Amino acid sequence: MGDTSEQDERRRRLAAWQASGRTLWRNSADRPVGERLATLADDASTVYDLDEWTDVYGGGVVADLESKVAALLGFPAAAFFPTGTMAQQVALRCWAGRTGNATVALHPLAHPEVHEGGALSVVSGLRTIHPTSEPRLPTADEIHATDEPFGTLMLELPLRDAGYVLPTWDELVAVVAAARERDAVVHFDGARLWECVTHFGRPLEEIAGLADSVYVSFYKSLDGLSGAMLVGPSAMVEEARVWRHRYGGQVFQQYPAALSALLGLERELPRLPSYVEHARVVAAALADAFAEPAADAGADVAAPPWFRVHPRRPHTHQFQVWLPYDARVLSEAAVRQAEETGVTLFRRWFDSGAGPPGVAMTEVTVGSAGLEWTADDVRQAVREFLARVETERTRADGPAD
């Protein structure tokens, strides 16, 4: 019953999001299968000769994608992986063998620690330590002060679960130098590296070039079907291909994912800086609206007692919003707003986890659909959302005694 209910709710959300005339972000993964297949078939010829033979265990369009990404990030070699989890585990395992040290220094909120079921230790035999537990990447001083030696420093750029946060460029350069002073190699979890150029003010090749190896994703910021790429020195990447096979990642054919990745590089990558800049407009308007939701409209909508837009000035085109209400109330208010007004401001809300009960968080993404939103549009949407929050809170609390 629980699975059926959740599936029904998911279908409801997807229908509301797709029918919305205005939304901050449209995710291709929310579209029906037939529509996605038709779009890929229509568009793929713009980035690849479809008269070429399909890939078989690599080669073909997969090899072309590998060459393109290696050149884009300034590395001599690249290997395509079906998942980023596999790519990253393989990278860290390769470096452990080459450095002779199976200890990886990373943040406790990094993807391998939070979202991979302990795979680094259970599957790959690696051990992790945490230079800091602050909700940001470690500093050079913290790397120097780490009590024990480590073979690899892994930095997630941006650190998603801390709010898609990034260090400054000088801080990043310093922390990489600190790791090298400790005879460690540096690996970037660059699942979302593509959108970091605005914050750092540096091209992708210069950012990636700080590290010894980098993993990037194709389905997150670039809206691809799936897949990831590991780039690094030629010998290390060749070893990674062997481990990819051992991990079950030697997939027979992957041309749909590779074609969609090429499309993402062609279409979405050049637009990411505009998304980042507009995310800052949206974030500022959200903060203003939560502070005084009815100040300029005379509407009877109360400001929440507390809120947080984090980071206040987003580092990428994604950021967090926190409110002091139950996640179920906020999620219901969000989907009702989409259904009743055709405006999707927020998507799903989640309880704070380690935080106090009654506090929820959502992640906001600004994509091409969000570029048309003005600050006034955001403020109006917040007012409409908060009105529905009050309705849902009253419904959830029940009638007064």
Structure description:
This protein is of the alpha/beta class. It contains 15 helices and 13 strands. The strands form 3 sheets. It has a 7-stranded mixed β-sheet, with helices on both faces. It is globular, with a radius of gyration of 22 Å. It starts with a helix and ends with a helix. 45% of the residues are buried.
Write out key terms for the chains shown.
401 residues, 7-stranded mixed beta sheet, 13 strands
Quick overview:
The protein has 401 residues and is an alpha/beta fold. It contains 15 helices and 13 strands.
Strand content: 5-15%
Order of helices and strands: HEHHEHEHHEHEHEHHEEHHHEEHEEEH
CA gyration radius, whole angstroms: 22 Å
Number of helices: 15
- Please provide the count of β strands: 13
Strand and helix map with partners:
Elements: H1 2-19, E1 22-23, H2 33-43, H3 60-73, E2 77-81, H4 84-99, E3 103-105, H5 111-114, H6 119-122, E4 127-129, H7 140-145, E5 152-156, H8 169-181, E6 185-190, H9 197-200, H10 204-208, E7 213-217, E8 228-232, H11 234-246, H12 255-267, H13 272-291, E9 308-310, E10 318-323, H14 327-341, E11 343-344, E12 350-351, E13 360-365, H15 375-397
Parallel strand pairs: 1-11, 3-4, 3-5, 5-6, 6-7
Antiparallel strand pairs: 2-8, 7-8, 9-10, 10-13, 12-13
